């Protein structure tokens, strides 16, 4: 019989993967459209780029990245440094610091995947029973996910932060802001929820 818990993991992972891919494509399209309009502030483009980069990295992690984890971590470290500079030079700094935290979380996740590659595991679903009690299996999660973190406390803090961010984004969707703010809130909800879930499965 199929384990219902593992089946739930498969369904949630598949749903989040699809949502992240859709949101990432929307972010890339939004960034491309905004780059053609001179009236758009560089502030908005920087935050849009952060969302798009996070979506691309998260999609790669969910779909098992083809490139080494260290190469994936590098652009997030660079982006976090740039967001740190913006946070020091512009106000309000809260949005920059929030995206900086997300970029560092992604870099940390990729770095942990690299340092724990030997401990990588996949979840499997039993697909049948034979007279010899042998089990077939169907891959449920991702080969690239490690079995743990070098500093689990950091992962716990980032996971809680991600879920709180998703909660605030969800409440923003219930308010009547402009359409552009609704898009940002929906993007934040999907990416933060997916990040929190990935931390949860990797702890």
Write the layout of secondary structure elements.
Layout (H helix, E strand, L loop, with lengths): L3 H32 L6 H21 L6 H21 L4 H22 L8 E6 L5 E5 L12 H23 L4 H24 L1
Antiparallel strand pairs: 1-2
Shape, per Cα inertia axes:
globular
**How do the helices and strands follow one another from N- to C-terminus?**
HHHHEEHH
Question: Structural class from helices and strands?
Answer: mainly alpha
> Main β-sheet: number of strands, strand sense, barrel status?
2 strands, antiparallel
What count of helical segments does DSSP give?
6
Key features of this structure:
203 residues, globular, 2 strands, mainly alpha, two-stranded antiparallel ribbon
Structure description:
- The chain has six helices and two strands.
- By secondary structure, the protein is mostly helical.
- It has a two-stranded antiparallel ribbon.
- A hairpin with a 5-residue loop joins β1 and β2.
- α1 packs antiparallel against α2.
């Amino acid at each position: 019989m199929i384990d219902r818990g593992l089946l739930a993991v498969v369904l949630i992972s598949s749903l989040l993967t699809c949502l992240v891919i859709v949101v990432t494509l929307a972010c890339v399209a939004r960034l491309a459209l905004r780059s053609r309009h001179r009236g758009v502030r560089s502030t908005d483009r920087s935050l849009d780029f952060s969302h798009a980069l996070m979506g691309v990295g998260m999609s790669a992690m969910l779909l098992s990245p083809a490139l080494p984890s260290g190469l994936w971590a590098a652009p997030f470290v660079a982006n976090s440094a740039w967001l740190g500079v913006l946070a020091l030079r512009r106000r309000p700094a809260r949005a920059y610091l929030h995206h900086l935290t997300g970029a560092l979380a992604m870099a940390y996740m990729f770095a942990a995947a690299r340092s724990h590659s030997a401990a990588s595991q996949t979840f499997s679903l039993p697909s049948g029973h034979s007279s010899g009690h042998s089990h077939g299996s169907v891959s449920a999660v991702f080969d690239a996910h490690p079995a743990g973190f070098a500093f689990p406390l950091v992962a716990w803090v980032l996971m809680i932060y991600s879920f709180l961010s998703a909660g605030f984004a969800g409440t923003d969707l219930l308010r009547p802001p402009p359409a552009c703010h609704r898009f940002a809130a929906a993007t934040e909800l999907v990416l933060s929820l997916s990040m929190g879930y990935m931390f949860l499965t990797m702890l």
